[in-house]
Amino acid sequence: MKTPVIRSAAALFAWAAFAVLTLPSSATDFRREVIYQVLTDRFYDGNTANNNPVESPGMYDPLGASNSPSANWRAYFGGDFAGLTAKMQYLADMGVTCLWISPPLNNRNSYYSPDWNNYKPYAPYAGYEMRHLGEIEEHFGDGGSATLPHNGWAAFDTMVAAAHAKGIKIVVDFAPNHSSQFNAAEYGLLYNTTGTLLAASYSADQAGDRIYHADAPITDWNSPYQVQYFPLFGLSDLKQEHPKVDSALKASLTLLASHGVDGFRIDASKHVNWGWMYSMANSIYTNAPAAAGNSSFLFGEWVADSTSDPMYWDYKKFTNKSGVTGLDFPLRQMIEDVFGTGVKSFYDLDALVNSYPGDYDWEGDLVTFIDNHDRPRFLTVNPSQAKLHAAMVFLLAGRGIPCLYYGTEQYLYNNTSGGGDPYNRPMMTSFSTTTTAYKIVQKLSALRRGANSALAYGTLQQRWLNNNVYVFERKFGADVVLVAINKGAGTVAANNLVTALPAGTYPDYLGLLNGQTLVTADNGGGTSKGNVNLPPDSVSVWTYSATETTPFFGSLSPVAAQAGVKVSVAGAGFGSTAGTLQFLSGTTTTNVAAASWSDSLITFNVPAVANGAWDLKVIRSGGASATLSGQTFNKFTVYQAALVPVTFSVNWTPGSNPNEKIYLTGDTSELGAWSANSYGAVGPFLRDPANPNHWFLTVSVPVGKTINFKFLRGDPATGILTYEGGSNRSYFVPTTAPGANQERFYDGNNFQ
Question: What dotted CATH number matches 168-301+309-315?
């Protein structure tokens, strides 16, 4: 047997009309948030002095401030952190509780044009072409200041402080997949957080230490190998598994967290090394500073517009296990198809919603949205404000964490060239607080943040349905929210409407979209019935809440970590006086000291218990209790230690079944605890197209621990895998990186 391949790297909202629940901004309870996505450059120009900075001149177009057709829509328009600070009250009054900003780090300083015959420079105004992992982009920060460093953090810190003062969390868009174009402008130039040059250019790197993958174009977008290892749209594709890249990216995330960032949206997560991201997530949770409440929230951009996508299975497994939840692209597409184009009905929407509990351990953690910076805006697809309003209510009252794209509340859109990139990214031109869309966000954000927990944590059940009418109910404990949407042209009588709302009269909570009063009568068995007429293009929302005396789990973050990491448990009915929190496994019970305790939120540090799956039990002061698994959620996973990425490689000649692949499992929870099925084991491995018998995979494993493992083979379609023969393999995970080019190989002959 040959020696092993292993490449390793160590490593309140307040508004007078509503009573709302104040939650600490440091608590990781994102289920109650309303996220607002902005492209910093396109929101508001608060500091004109940084529009054309000395460091990177010539990439600003003043015509952009008015969305002029003559402007270079790929230039900077002037928005900055000072602009976000200036409009923080506007956001808070709307009910925004989390602000997702475009990547704030220093981007390439020179322009390029893909069409020299029709010259218009491309500027990295969106922020996705980083050049320095430790500096702020001068166009957004202090680029025009005579007294502050052009890439200093002052304006960023002021913006974060202003957000936190209004009860608004900050999520930063982070792009670990790439730097700049490999064939133009700065050619991939990249510095780490301390200013050390990692790559002077892509071409120089390819002749040296190789922190970038090769530049082969993606030809098969359904190939897990190509989407992770080939460059995206000509951008220099980083080797996250390289020790220098691994440490630089994680240091940058830690630096951002130290400046008060509450969470991260991972750009192009589908294209980043999937196995490495487990260690990235664990690094963020492990190193979150005390000033930020030792907490964070992570979600990624894995584009899959339907559940029939060839990589949807990979996405589900990644979302459930990695610590990085996802943006809900299948639901976004369904919202467009149902409310926008009308090519699908509410039957289709309900079917999709009902499929999610079987797919995801925590489907309520998925971030839901209607449109974003990569898709035409909803009003381009369908200019009907009534249909947009209905879609917004479904988004804000449905399952998941709702995210609004900037300007939706002002009906902002531009249909030039079909309304796609860059015309879906116009400058914000109005900040009215009287639009119906603005008020919808106000009202439903207050409901989500208030005493009723159903929108944040509740189940979703269809109560009345036809092609154009969808009545659904959210329920959590005794809290109920019933929503009725009629997107059709005629009035519909929804008779014998079954609901968990107790018998009574319920006026429309929303009061904005032709809503109706619902009268319910007791039907026995904990349900009621009611009759209501739903006018065309109407939305009604009816609510009921009660004081909870029994604990209910709502969310858990993170869902896997090693001893010492801070964890938040949110829900209802925990009691205002501290009760008891326990870890349970078989006959073992471990009491855990809570760091904080309120009726809706408990925080604790993971205890020093054996690695593996543990149940959580909350015992309310006075006796009532609840267990995590008792509500059908997966249990909490305890890691042996902090995770570091290790690349395992094996030489194996496939047998007669061309669909068979290689997997890995072992004696620790990080490796699947000896699971022999394709979901529980780690993998499948990737096959090197240059050497079809070479299989490899980056796996996040516990640092400083000896792991025992075996390879498995099998057809992922069956889910059943076969262990290799012989004794268990063993490997000590080093605490320091062994060097970028140190490779060893496992032999897979035990399968023969």
Answer: 3.20.20.80
Pairing status of strand 661-666 against strand 130-136: unpaired
Cβ pair 16, 101 in contact under 8 A: no
Please, where in the chain does CATH 2.60.40.10 lie?
A: 552-637, 640-751
pLDDT in tens, 379-430: 999 999 999 999 999 999 999 999 999 999 999 999 999 999 999 999 999 9
Q: What is the 3-state secondary structure (H, E, C) of 39-65?
A: CHHHCCCCCHHHCCCCCCCCCECHHHH
Q: What are the Cα distances from residue 100, in Å, to 181, 339, 569?
A: 25, 25, 23
Q: Which residues of 485-518 are buried (b: 16+ CB within 10 A; e: fewer)?
A: bbbbeeebebeebbbbbeeeebebbbebbbbbeb
Topology of the domain covering 552-637: Immunoglobulin-like (2.60.40)
Outline which parts of the chain fall under CATH 3.20.20.80.
Answer: 168-301+309-315
Whether 270 and 177 have beta carbons less than 8 Å apart is answered as no
Q: Is pLDDT above 70 for 742? A: no
By annotation, the residues acting in catalysis are 267, 301
Q: What is the pLDDT of residue 207?
A: 79
pLDDT of residue 739: 43
Q: What is the pLDDT of residues 589-598, one digit of tens each?
A: 999 999 999 9
Residue 532, class by beta-carbon neighbours within 10 Å (0-12 exposed, 13-18 middle, 19+ buried)? buried
Q: CATH 2.60.40.1180 region(s) of the chain?
A: 456-544
Strands 401-405 and 625-627: unpaired
Say if residue 25's pLDDT is above 70: no
Q: Which value, to the nearest 10 degrees, does the dihedral of the CA atoms of residues 666, 669, 673, 675 take?
A: -100
**CATH code assigned to 640-751:** 2.60.40.10
Number of helical H runs and strand E runs in the chain: 14, 41
Q: What pLDDT digit, counting tens, does each position of 639-694 carry?
A: 999 999 999 999 998 887 889 999 999 999 999 999 999 999 999 999 988 888 99
What is the CA 88 to chain-centroid distance, rounded? 23
Cα radius of gyration (the chain): 26
CA atoms within 13 A on the CB side of 633: 26
- In the structure, what pLDDT confidence band is assigned to residue 69 with cuts at 50, 70 and 90? very high
Q: Give dist(CA 23, CA 552) in Å, integer.
A: 17
Superfamily for 456-544? Golgi alpha-mannosidase II (2.60.40.1180)
Bridging pattern class, strands 729-732 and 706-714: antiparallel
Q: Give SS3 for 223.
A: coil
- DSSP codes, 295-341: ---EEE----SSTTSTTHHHHHHHHHHSS-EEB-HHHHHHHIIIIIS
Q: 202 near 234, Cβ under 8 Å?
A: no
Q: What kind and span of H or E run contains 20? A: none
Closest CA to 8 of 262, 335, 243, 351: 243
C-alpha torsion angle, residues 647, 728, 316, 613 (rounded to 10): -120
How would you classify residue 597: left for phi > 0, otherwise alpha for psi between -120 and 50, otherwise beta? beta
Q: What is the pLDDT of residue 10?
A: 36
556-591 pLDDT tens trace: 999 999 999 999 999 999 999 999 999 999 999 999
Looking at residue 600, what is its pLDDT? 94
